[in-house]
Specification:
alpha+beta, 19-stranded antiparallel sheet
């Protein structure tokens, strides 16, 4: 009887030990993640990103393709406006495409090596492996990491990352501010390692013409090769961005907050805003889009004046703000213009990539729904520029 009891006890102990061996701690998972990234050749993911940066949450369908060594294709579709932006990186540079307008902007940049996005797998894993104070939880089907957010903005402080236990694919990401409020939330519907792409899947012209001709969805349906899936054709891509004007007195920059780059973009007039002002008279025959004013302004800043500018028959608007900080906002719907190069940096505005340039006088430039925006200031902090830009996105296209 004692022998049987002893044997039962040994079996229970062994069972506990085996069960314990089946669990992984944070160090073991981090080691695996380094191996996954090191061996990874490509991936394809899709999901929904929600920005909680304004009064109303904004949702975007996100699709991302990556292929070694440095090819990327990202499609951001505004769920409400049904407009799409495509961001490409290939051997020629980083492109932001607006297929419906047949326009493209090229940035000579090492993005996303120096600054990634919340929906890029490498960025998430880099955040996990680089944070020695990481917090770890083992849930039923997921490994959960709570780590520092590293997105070159003081507004984003922490992030929680859910990884599938079976293959370490991302399931969800929540990025929070200093008050623990979720600012960005990404839920992945699908994620596949080892995705196969056609030879020209990351070609700029292929993506431009395919999106324009096919008018297809940005999602990846089974049986359709990635190179054949395009942006929302026939509709304006959501939030492409533009380049600075090298000769412009007030437009010497692009929207961005990131690594050093050179951007090749379109020289353009400045733009306008919605919520039309009765005192502003629109140029006859101009392509008016109203006046789009930001819903956010730094404390101690007020709108000084606004005016419509007529440059080569274009409709554009200039708004000047003064107070604690002094800055000017320009808005216009750019026409075809000569390409230019200027030193600049990439910034992730959440809803789009932007560019920032200039030293003493900085200019943040981005594009939404075919309208180019520029914020120019000598004293406005970069993070405040990004906040203003985000608040304008909520107002545009209403």
């Amino acid at each position: 009887m004692r022998r049987i009891s002893w044997m039962l006890a040994m079996v229970l102990v062994l069972s506990v030990l085996l069960a314990a061996c089946g669990k992984k701690d944070a160090a073991a998972v981090v080691k695996d993640l380094n191996e996954v990234v090191g061996e990874m050749e490509s991936y394809q993911g899709a999901g929904v990103m929600t920005l909680h940066t304004g009064d109303t949450p904004q949702q975007y369908k996100v699709e991302v393709w990556h292929q070694k060594p440095s090819y990327y294709r990202i499609a951001l579709t505004n769920a409400k406006k049904d407009v799409t932006q495509i961001v490409l990186r290939n051997d020629e540079g980083v492109f932001v495409l607006t297929p419906s307008q047949n326009k493209s902007f090229r940035f000579q940049s090492n993005w996303p090596d120096n600054q990634g996005q919340v929906y890029l797998y490498e960025t998430l894993i880099r955040s996990i492996t680089g944070d020695t104070t990481r917090q770890f939880a083992d849930e039923k089907e997921s490994y959960v990491f709570d780590v520092a957010a590293n997105y070159n903005t003081h507004a984003l402080v922490r992030q929680k990352i859910w990884l599938n236990k079976s293959d370490y694919a991302p399931k969800q990401v929540e990025v929070s501010d200093s008050n623990a409020n979720v600012v960005v939330d990404v839920k992945f519907d699908s994620f596949k390692f080892g995705a196969a792409f056609e030879k020209d899947a990351f070609d700029m012209q292929r993506n431009m013409t395919a999106a324009t001709k096919e008018g297809g969805q940005t999602g990846t349906d089974s049986g359709v090769t990635p190179a054949e899936q395009t942006g929302e054709g026939g509709k304006e891509p959501a939030n492409p961005q533009t380049a600075p004007e090298p000769d412009g007195a007030v437009t010497d920059g692009q929207s961005g907050v990131g690594g050093d780059t050179e951007q090749q973009g379109t020289e353009g007039a400045t733009t306008g805003q919605e919520g039309e002002e009765p005192t502003l008279a629109e140029p006859e025959g101009a392509d008016s889009f109203g006046v789009i004013q930001p819903t956010y302004a730094p404390e101690g800043v007020q709108l000084k004046d606004d005016q419509i500018l007529e440059e080569a028959g274009d409709y554009s608007v200039m708004l000047r703000y003064e107070g604690t900080y002094n800055y000017t906002i320009f808005e216009a719907r750019p026409q075809d213009r000569a390409v230019s190069l200027a030193p600049s940096s990439v910034v992730d505005l959440g809803f789009t990539l932007g560019m920032i340039s200039g030293d003493a006088l900085k200019t943040l430039t981005w594009m939404t729904d075919g309208i180019e925006y520029r914020i120019t200031s000598a004293d406005l902090p970069q993070n405040e520029m990004a906040r203003i830009a985000t608040s304008m996105q909520e107002e545009s296209g209403k």
